[in-house]
Structure formats: C-alpha cells, structure tokens
Amino acid sequence: MPFEVIPIHVVQTVSSETGLTGNAPPLLREISELLLRLLESGEIAAIDLSALPLTPADLDWLQDRLGQGEIAITLQASGESTLNETACPGVWWVTHRNENGAVTSQFIEVAFVPDLVKAHPQDVEWGRERLELLLADF
Amino acid sequence: MPFEVIPIHVVQTVSSETGLTGNAPPLLREISELLLRLLESGEIAAIDLSALPLTPADLDWLQDRLGQGEIAITLQASGESTLNETACPGVWWVTHRNENGAVTSQFIEVAFVPDLVKAHPQDVEWGRERLELLLADF
Fold first, then answer.
1. 8 A C-beta contact, residue B81 and residue B40
2. What does the angle CA B21 – CA B22 – CA B27 come to, to the nearest 5 degrees?
3. Residue B101 sits in which domain range?
4. Residue B124 domain-assigned?
5. Mutation site, B28, B32, B39, B126, interface A, largest A CB count within 10 A
6. What is the CA radius of gyration of chain A?
7. Which helix (H) or strand (E) holds A46?
8. Is B78 a member of any domain?
9. Euclidean distance between CA atoms A13 and A29, whole angstroms
10. What pTM, to 2 d.p., does this model score?
11. Rounded Cα–Cα distance for residues A41 and B95 (Å)
C-alpha cells in the first residue's frame, strides 16, 4: 500500500491577537534590495501595497519599522496625495485619496525623489509662456 | 564757465499707497530667463529674496503673480522649511524658519524639483544599513 499523499495547502493565517499576516516582513527585505538597485543603477521602483494581502495591522507594522523622515509632500489633484519620506532616505510612503478623502491606493516608492514631485519640461515651457504674457503687460 | 555737473542719485522710492518699490517686476523677467536656462541646459538657480530690497507688499505682489501650484513640501530640520510649487511649474517658493517659527530666509528656486527634497546617496546607503540591521532580527 503506497504512502498516503497528504496535500498541504498553505493558508494565509491572520493572528487573531495582533492582526498580522506575516506578509509585511518580506516587504522590508524587498525594499532593501530595491535600495541597493537604486544606489547601483539609479533604478526607481514602487510596491503597490493595495495589491498585496496586507491587513491594517500589517501596514501599521511596516510604517513603524520604516519610521518617519523629515520631508512631507502634499499634492492636490482631484483628491489629495501625500508622499512622506520615511526614516530610510530614498523610501517614500505614498497615499492617494479621492475627492472625499478616502484612500484609493498606497505605494512604497524607492527613489531619490518621488516621480510625481518633478515638474515636467512641457509644463515648465507652458508656465514660462504664461509668465511672458504677464510680462508683456508691464 | 563749464556746465555745472549735477550729480543724480537714484533713490529707491516706496509708494506710500501700495508699499511697492517697483523691484518685484524685474524679478519676474529674471525668473523667465532662469526657466529658459533650466529647459535648455538643466541649470538650476535660486534667487535670495532676503538679500533684495523688497517690501512685504513686493513679496505679496510677486507671490500673487506666480500663483499657487499643486505641490506643497514641508521639511522639518531645526525649524520648518516650506517649498511650495507656484502656478509656474519649475518655480518654487522656499521659506526657511527657525525653531521659533520666524522666517530666516526666502528663496525662489528654479528647478524641476527643489534640491533639498532629493535624498543623498550617502543617506540612502546609511538607511539601507539600518534596514539590514532590522532584518537581522527576524
């Protein structure tokens, strides 16, 4: 008689005490790898936290471990986005909200500066034209 | 008898009605030139407003003309600094305050992104080492 094959299903378990799934710690390792890539090649990356099986407790745990940095950015564009530096320079906690203030997505961005903060050359060109029109009135 | 030489002194006059000196409009022209340089060569520049003979009314006039953009940045480091995008993308209004909240200096920075917002590679390296130490505990 052959050995009985017992299929093992890995089930994501949430601790009833802490609400943690154990999915957050591997993210810290991934962030460390992404920081290395940023330093070595300037490659920027983002982790979409909304797409991962993370509980609010996981997100709190992650936020606590990453800490808070000196820079806080807000961007107003059909809802408020916040892009906060963590205590790990180069790691930014990005939260997008809709017009009602509800969180629509959350990312961890690994970059020297978040991409959304950079002015685009085309917009700069447009702004300069506007300024020139203003100057024509003096 | 030779012509009498009458020395002409240009005196900065402040309008008693508006408080304006007339020194602000030429700054708009300078900003437009700096935007052109930014677009053409990527050169960044800053105008130290504290070093110029500008009245509070001049500063208000300038701020009104430049308008308000979508991005507001605060930086906490021995006093709060604010780096606010104007309605002219690439033009940032930068205000540094001391620990008591008093303004210590004001700049207009012309750059795709203000220099102070960028994480320095050395700090990123240091942050990654801190993260690795944290990971060693799991």
1. no
2. 120
3. 25-135
4. yes
5. B32
6. 21
7. strand A45-48
8. yes
9. 21
10. 0.86
11. 33
Q: Are B39 and A119 in contact (CB under 8 A)?
A: no
Separation of alpha carbons A9 and B21, rounded Å: 77
**Tokens (6 digits) for A107:** 């990312």
- When divided into structural domains, chain B yields a total of 1
A25, A91, A127: residue with CB nearest B88: A127
ipTM strictly over 0.95? no
CB contact at 8 A, B53 and B113: no
pLDDT score recorded for residue B1: 47
CATH of the domain at A76: 3.30.1370.140
Integer-rounded Cα Rg, in Å, for chain B is 21
Tell me the sheet residues that pair with A83.
A73, A94
- Note the pLDDT tens digit of each residue in A71-110: 999 999 989 999 999 999 999 999 999 999 999 999 999 9
Q: Which two tokens stand for residue A24?
A: 């957050």
Q: Is the CA virtual torsion B110, B115, B118, B120 positive or negative?
A: positive
- What's at A94, amino acid-wise? V
Among chain A residues, CA nearest to B32:
A128
Does A65 contact chain B (CB < 8 Å)?
yes
Cβ proximity of B55 and B24 under 8 Å: no
Q: How far apart are CA A6 and CA B35, in angstroms?
A: 69
A126: CB partners within 8 A, 6+ apart:
B89
Q: Does residue A36 lie in a domain region?
A: yes
Looking at the domain assignment, is residue A5 inside a domain? no
Average pLDDT over residues B58-84: 96
Q: C-alpha angle with apex B72: A134 to B128, nearest 5 degrees?
A: 135
Residue of B20, B35, B83 to mutate, interface with A, max A Cβ within 10 Å: B35
